[in-house]
Amino acid sequence: MSSDITSTTSSDKDTDSERKSKEKREKIPIYTTSIAWAAGRSSIFTYLSYFGVVLGASPLEQSILTSVRNLGSNLFQSVWGWLADLRGRKLVMTIGLTTLALTIFITPFVSNPLELVLLSIIMTSLGFSFIPAWIAFLGDYTSEEKRASFIGFINSIGTLSSLFVILLLGWWMDSTPFPFPSELAIYAESKPVFFIPFITGAIIFTLALGSELFLKEKYNIREKAIFRDELHLSTRNLIERNEPFKRLLPINSFFKFCMSMAWPIFPFVTLRVAHSWLEVSILWAVFNLPRGLGQSVGGILADRFGKKIVITLSRFGYAVVPFGYAIGLVTGNVWFLLLVNIPGGFAFGAEDTAISSYSLDCSTVDTRARYYSILLTFEGIFAFTGSLFAGLLMEVLLTVLRITDKDPKFEFVLVALLLLITALRIIGASFHKYIHANPLDFELEKHLGSSNQ
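Predicted structure:
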């Protein structure tokens, strides 16, 4: 009798051990895909804006580049989210990674800002289909109670690993004979150095594509007839039927407008204050290190104390970044840019995890990708508007003051705009006190209320 019990216990242990071993094997390609995605994304966003400046983009052209990149990366997200819910997450991720690998390979061959704008539209509108499918894929791997922690942990692995790529690229670019583009006269001479980050990025996205093929998809594509109503709900119906999401959407969109106004300004400030590509890389590394920590810690805090408080506090943290850039520009000291990137990076990581998991809490298993993609679509539209508005405002001020973007007085315009954006970010962050604390509780209360009636 005792031998039977011992045998059963041993068998249970073996089964449990095999299950844990299988789960670990399943997560290896998740880790590698996250690392490759973050490293490839960093190779784009660390240097693409500076490439626009080197190509001779004016403040308005730079804002258009930033605007279309934001719009392209988000405008079609509802389509990609719908496709990820209909045909599976991996198909959409494959489309995204393939597009990114091809377009970033072509990028260093571009010769003017207009070509860069057109290529950016293709790169972001097709390539960033990866994002809603990836978030939905991670959401399929965990429960609501641990969702933010899991998503934050996985994404933080990628973000922290990308630090080495950013620093390596900066060192490599500085070791070439091409000068750092701190002056207009040497822009053309510095252009060839961009082959290093963009070709490297193309290789990394190709590796990400190979890793993604080994992912095991948890989402089961059932017969369309079973959930036809869910799949064919319009964007308007999806928003209207969910009160927490409907409340979040305009508040989040306005904040993205305030946020995006600074994005076309930052490259002009950085190239006026930094002295080498290694300094630029360190700036991004200092941003990404606390960002990775913020993704992991923010997920834990969101699960423990609520996603609303993490989102709200993080967005107040964003306000310090343009203020620090203004001080750095006035003093000419790159240390101010480094300093504000620490709280800015942590806030970005924590908020990114909290708001993506908040969006997933608003959805069902069959609408996860679409709810998150709707959020991204509206973000893209308002980020496009904000960046374009900033560029137009700069052009108006330069025209009225009769100065050019090459004039030393242009720095005063940049400082004034950065201070304005700081105030707008504080106002936008304050509106987050009006979002619902927990979408899951709201849905439960609504269900109980209808039952009682």
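Summary: The domain at 27-214+228-444 is CATH 1.20.1250.20 (Growth Hormone; Chain: A;).
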